[in-house]
Structure formats: structure tokens, C-alpha cells
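Standup notes, structure subgroup. Blocker cleared on the zinc ion input:
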Amino acid sequence: MLIRNAEVWQAGPADVRVEAGRIAALGTLPALPGETIVDACGGALLPGLHDHHIHLAALAARKSSVACGPPEVRDAQDLARALDRPGTGWLRGIGFHESVLGGILPDAAALDRLVPHRPLRMQHRTGRMWLLNSMALDELLRAAAPPPGIEREGGRFTGRLFDEDAWLQRALGSRPPDFSEASRELARYGITGVTDMSPRNDPAMAAHFARQAASGALRQSLVLAGTPALAEAACEGWRLGPVKLHLHEAALPDFDTALAFVRAGHGQDRPVAVHCVTEVELVFALALLEEAGHLPEDRIEHVSIAAPELVARMAALGDEAGLRACVQPHFVSERGDRYLADVEPRHHGDLYRLRSLREAGIVMAGGSDAPYGSPDPWTAMAAATSRRTSGGAVIGRDEALTPEQALALYLADPLDLARQRRVAPGEPADLCLLDRPWAQARARPRGTDVAATWVSGRLVHQRVDKAPVERLPGADAAP
Ligand SMILES: [Zn+2]
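Run returned:
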């Protein structure tokens, strides 16, 4: 394939030849006999974007779920309307926040009033709690013994379930979901690779990912983070990423247990990725890595709130570049208004830092945390440059990045975050073509500018309003 007349990222106007899944040549290139030709019409040709922190199974499941929180659902009436769905099987609600019910977390009896006739499970927007109605409780407890994370009050189950996703999945007997639709959506944004950061990824889950990749349901290249046991799985269709340590301030693990976990990961030559959304979690993570020693790719996920002295400690931990930080700039727009209300004003400057991390020498990458944030990296880039909340407030104007710095968050090599991937001979042909030059796109980053996406030279997305650049695999099959 020859992509002609492209504005190649950091190389300027050029033609690009793709052969055997890789970029073969760059320059002024005459077409070869029989070669597929794509006219980029001067559009920017970028390395394909990589989402460095996503939860694919949860994103896929979300696509068949009912939204139960803001912005779609804002009050009790909205919630009742959203849950009023025909059908008899399980109803799965997502994104619930107690603000919908005036600060109240409903118990099973309260949910029965909304959904009396079918089992309901409703996930809190943090992803750490499920709220069950009575039919759901009955059905799950028939299938499995009550786990430690099921809440009891006066000997009765309240219907609240904390951090028991594995138990829930077992009790539901559910199979992991199909990734086709989620993968197609990511391709529309120009995403050619993802790092799945789900802490419970294990060899069984890896086998599901491998099947999804082999069947073509999952089109992106894949790095799997997860449990130490993941290292025992055969890497078919994916590459092994960090061990994931999920900290939760309200129930921090025993320090020595966590230390052993970090050392086990390092013993497998795997970096650790530590979930840190509060300052207490960040302090705990830094203490762990200061004690255990660190690998160059050890990383802090989210860094939602960090005082300057903690930024300095993060920077001091690495050899040259500090700990890595995987950030979610779109949380400024999606959650900013709520945080401005909930977080003490003296901490507002510590929220979702970007530029100060960069200036401290910390290598950063961007991840969506989808489905807990939007999977669209372009809205994240827009928020990284504007620092604007959806309500129009600005959080930490000085933390803004330039559009190029924001894009770079998604161009990092997933296994070597300090390295930026490029459109250059020898690199994989993971490509994102915009319908306009970068000088126009940078002014207001948006996903609809993506005209076509290739993974290893294979077309995985093209915009319907554009003339087809080539046939999608299967597009010519009989109806
Ligand atoms: Zn996450």
C-alpha cells in the first residue's frame, strides 16, 4: 500500500509505503504496479494512538448496560425511567452515584421499589461497589456462598457488594464479553493499541483476550497488565505488561504484603503499576517503591492528586526520568466540577497535574480508564490543553499542555513510555490518518477528524463520508 500526499507526523509532506505490516519507505515514492493507493489529501498521518490504561471487558459489558448516573441520570425520576426496561433477565446498571438519590446509597428494598420483577445489579461509578435488588441477591446466593465483601446489617444482607467482582462473575456464571463493538469504537478514534490495566487479568482472562484477538473481534495490538500469575500464560496475540497493584485508601493492604507483591512483580522483570487516586494512596505507593527498589517502567496510575513534595519524590525515584505517570486528562472535564465541590480548595492546585509532572522530568502516558472515563482520547487532549470542566470552570490553568504534548501522551511506546513511536521505516504500520493538516486539528482536537486507522497495515476504520481508501476485510462479502 502507498499512502500519498500525507503530512507525516514530525517528518512533513511525504508518501508512505507499507509492506508486510510495517512502514517500508518514506519520501517521494512512485507507485509500484498493482499497489493499493491511498490519497491522504494533505491530512496528518500520525502513529496510531495507544490507550495506556483501559478496562476492555468492563467497556464491552458497559455497551449492553443502562446508565444510572450523571450526566444521563440526575435524580430519582430519571433513575426510575432508566431502569424501566422491558424484559425478564438480568438488568445491569452502571455509573450510579448517590447524588442521584440525594446522597443515599439504596439498599435492596429501595431497589425493589424501582425494579421488582427482575434481578438488578447496579454498579457504583467508582467501579468498586455493586448494589443489588432482592431478586439479584437471591439468585446470586443460590449460586455461591456469601463472600466477605457482601454487606450485612443486623444479620440481613443490604444488597451492597464491595470489591467482589470475581465472586460476582463466578456466581453469575458469565462469560467475558465480546470486544467487537468496543474495538470498533476505539478504531474510530485512531487507536491502534491498548494496555488493559485490569488488576484481575490472569491466564484465564488472557486466553479470552487471545481468542478475541485471533478471531478479529479485537483489532488493536494488546498489552496486558494484571496479576503475577499472568506471567505463566502463553503470550499469544498480546504482550506482557506490568503487575497491577490496586490500592484503596479505605482498605490499604498490609505494607509487607504489598511489598512482597511488588518484589514478586520485579522478580518477573515486570514493572508495577500502582493505582493512586488519593494522596494517601500515592504516599503508600512511594513508600513501597522506595523500599522495594524500582524498575525503569514502574508507574503510578491516575496521580489524581499530588502535592509538590510528592511530585518531587516521584521524580527522585527513577534513574533519569522518575516514575512513569499514566494520566487521564479528561477527568478534568468529566469529574472536575464534582471535585471542585468535594475537594478542599487548598488542594485544587494538586488535581490532575500535567505540566508540573512533565517539568519535574516525569515521563507521562495517557489512558482513558474506560469505561470509568470516556474512551475518546481526543476529548482528553482537548481537556489537557483547556483544563476546562464540563461546567466551564478551569482547574489548574498552569497544568495545561500544548496540543503536541497532549498528543504525545498517546504516542508513547506501551512498554517503554519514554520512547515516542514514529512514522518511520521499520516501525509497525499502526497509523491514524486525519482529514486535515495538524495545524488545523490542533486548534480543537476531536475524534471526528480521524479519516482512517490501520493496525499493522490492515485497515480497521474509515470514515463513512470519505471515499473508501480500500476495501475493509469482509466488506465485499455477499449480503
Ligand atoms: Zn483503571
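Discussed briefly. Confidence is low (pLDDT under 50) at residues 471-479.
Next: hand off to the docking folks.
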